[in-house]
Amino acid sequence: MMFITRPQSYRASLLPLLVSVLAACSYEGGSSHGAAGVNESVDVSDWEEIAEKATAASVVKGEALFQMCTGCHSFEEGEPSPAGPGLFGFAGRRVGSLEAYPYTQALANSTERWTVSHFDAFIASPYDVYPGTGMAFSGLKNELDRQALIAFIGARLSEP
Asked: Exposed/middle/buried for 4, CB within 10 Å: 0-12, 13-18, 19+?
C-alpha cells in the first residue's frame, strides 16, 4: 500500500500515542481461544506504520466507508455490537478470540492475527479468506477503498 505521508511533526506526535493505546487495547483477557495474554507480545507495527503514513484525505474517506461496518460492529471500548464482534483492540489480536462472542468455526479455529495484510484480504473477500464465515458482507473490492478504510482504523487506534 502506498500513502502520502503527513508532515513529520504530526507523525512524531502520533506514533508514541498509537503505541501506548494499542498496547493497552490489544489484550482482551481470558479468552478460551488464545487471545494475546499479559505476557504475550502483540505485534502492531504494521498498524502503526499505516497510521504514520495515512493522509488526512484517506482517513476521511475511510471514515465514510466505515459507516457500512457500524450496522454490525462497534469500535468503542465496552460498547455492544449489533451483530458482529466489537472491533475495539482488534489490531494484532488473534482472529476469533474475543471472549463471549459466538464465532463460526471458520474464525474460531483460525491461528491468524489481525495484521494489516490479513485484514485487507479479509475485507476484500471475507468468504474467500474464511469459508463458512457468518459475516454478511461480500467484500470491499476496490483496493483504494480498502486502503482508506485501513487508514481510518489505524488513525482511530491512535485516539485516546
From this structure: exposed
For residue 3, being part of any structural domain is answered with: no
Grid cell listed for 56: 488526512
| Domains of the chain: total | 1
To 10 degrees, the CA torsion angle through 106, 109, 111, 115? 40
* Interval 130-143: pLDDT, tens: 999 999 999 999 99
Q: What is the pLDDT of residues 62-108, one digit of tens each?
A: 999 999 999 999 988 889 899 999 998 899 999 999 988 999 999 99
Q: In which element (H, E) is residue 54 found?
A: none
Closest CA to 64 of 149, 153, 155: 149
